[in-house]
From TrEMBL:
Name used for this protein in its record: Lipid-A-disaccharide synthase
Residues covered by region (Disordered): 1-24
Function recorded in the entry: Condensation of UDP-2,3-diacylglucosamine and 2,3-diacylglucosamine-1-phosphate to form lipid A disaccharide, a precursor of lipid A, a phosphorylated glycolipid that anchors the lipopolysaccharide to the outer membrane of the cell.
GO molecular function: lipid-A-disaccharide synthase activity
Superkingdom in the source lineage: Bacteria
Pfam families, per the entry: LpxB
Documented EC number(s): 2.4.1.182
Source lineage: Bacteria, Pseudomonadati, Pseudomonadota, Alphaproteobacteria, Acetobacterales
Keywords: Glycosyltransferase, Lipid A biosynthesis, Lipid biosynthesis, Lipid metabolism, Transferase
């Protein structure tokens, strides 16, 4: 798969927006694509493949992680620079984020792509779309901002930011339509994750895990601000669980970019978790697992695809939590629960994210077949809601993008 070389004489990003460079020669229509975190990198990679299948001459540039880079994208700067979450947590990174925004805008201005796609990461992506609003470049935002959950007033800022909004959840188009914005449902990328291809026995053999040892998946998050808050709680939880389950085997699946950070954080744990970075090994781990403890987000749908019983937990800065509680408008934070319209999986958030409460919940998941079966029955119903009308989610998203790309510029509507 082709991509444009980076701006700069040596083919690398100069990192200095004041340093003018000459746009590189163009061999096909250019799509500039941005992913700001691990889940966006996965979505972006599948989208690049689907777009390339529809038009092999397409050229890609922008920002992405390892999976997008493996398909030929030379990331303008490390995607990890954008992976931050929390109202308070973002403050120390504001200067760097502003610099990266400036670099992204400059790169788009120099390359003059035919279309820009931003994936999720609304804090950065929507600012970028706003900065290039007057450029005349067609813009797509993939993964609708979850303003239906909190900060609904932000909807007033959206008109003019994109030409097409691609939604992952079936209720989103109607929600946005009621507020004067068009959204198009393309299905959820989790359906293409390949989770169901996992082999639990293969995972146990590869990692020398006895057949009787309970495997517990721990997912502390892919952002720099998440794991340092959750992992210390997970460690104390394991100390409690080890009394009842002396052979308990924790597994932490993480993106390769954050694996060194995770290894550093767990280096002194008495029970050393297996760190899994390979996607196929991750799916094997899901197949081997008795249950999981995960932060909120897409990971709940991924675990549901793997039929892994779970509990959801999260902990942020107390100030962030106080502000968020005033703004959140939905009854649940776990996507599985939101789609089901009820609490399918336990949610242990903030002050309930304690070693004792987590241990009690995980112990119940390991010992209560009825609880496990109820979750698994609900997973099937939730996942049925996420399929696009035709094809795969990536194909549906690519079709929307190609449709817009092929429209004459004069017909490009501003939502």
């Amino acid at each position: 798969m082709n991509s444009l070389p980076e701006s700069g004489s040596d083919g690398q990003s100069s990192g200095d927006p004041s340093q003018k460079t000459t746009p590189m020669p163009r061999y096909g229509r250019v799509i500039w694509i941005l992913a700001g975190e691990a889940s966006g990198d996965v979505i972006g990679a599948r989208l690049m493949q689907a777009l390339h299948a529809q038009d092999p001459s397409l050229v890609f540039a922008g920002v992405g992680g390892g999976r997008m880079e493996a398909l030929g994208l030379h990331s303008l700067f490390p995607m990890s620079d954008l992976a931050v979450m929390g109202l308070v947590e973002v403050v120390p990174r504001l200067r760097q984020l502003s610099q990266r925004l400036l670099e992204a805008v400059q790169d788009i201005e120099l390359r003059k792509p035919d279309l820009v796609v931003t994936i999720d990461s609304p804090g950065f992506a929507l600012r970028l779309l706003q900065k290039i609003e007057r450029s005349g470049i067609k813009r797509v935002h993939y993964v609708a901002p979850q303003v239906w959950a909190w900060r609904e007033k932000r909807v007033k800022e959206f008109p003019g930011l994109w030409d097409r909004l691609l939604c992952l959840l079936p209720f989103e188009p109607e929600w946005f339509a009621q507020r004067g914005l068009e959204g198009r449902f393309v299905g959820h990328p989790v359906l293409q994750s390949g989770v169901r291809n996992g082999d639990g026995q293969r995972f146990r053999l590869r990692h020398n895990i006895p057949a009787h040892a309970p495997v517990v998946i721990l997912m502390p998050g892919s952002r720099r601000s998440e794991a340092p808050r959750l992992l210390p709680v997970f460690r104390k939880m394991l100390d409690i669980l080890r009394v009842q389950y002396p052979d308990i085997c924790p597994v932490i699946p993480v993106a390769p970019v954050i694996a060194p950070t995770i290894r550093q954080l767990i280096r002194k744990w008495p029970i050393q978790p297996h760190i899994v970075t390979d996607i196929h090994d991750k799916h094997d781990a899901f197949a081997a697992a008795q249950c999981a403890l995960t932060k909120s987000g897409t990971s709940t749908l991924e675990l549901a695809m793997g039929n892994v019983p779970m509990a959801v937990t999260y902990r942020v800065n107390p100030v962030t939590a106080t502000i968020a509680r005033r703004l959140i408008k939905v009854p649940h934070v776990a996507m599985v629960n939101l789609l089901a319209g009820r609490e399918v999986v336990p949610e242990l958030l903030q002050e309930n994210c304690t070693p004792k409460k987590l241990a009690e919940t995980v112990s119940k998941l390991l010992s209560d077949p009825q609880m496990v079966e109820k979750q698994r029955m609900a997973f099937a119903d939730v996942l049925d809601m996420l399929s696009p009308p035709v094809g795969t989610p990536a194909d549906a998203a690519a079709a929307e993008i190609m449709d817009l790309l092929n429209e004459p510029v004069s017909r490009s509507s501003r939502s």
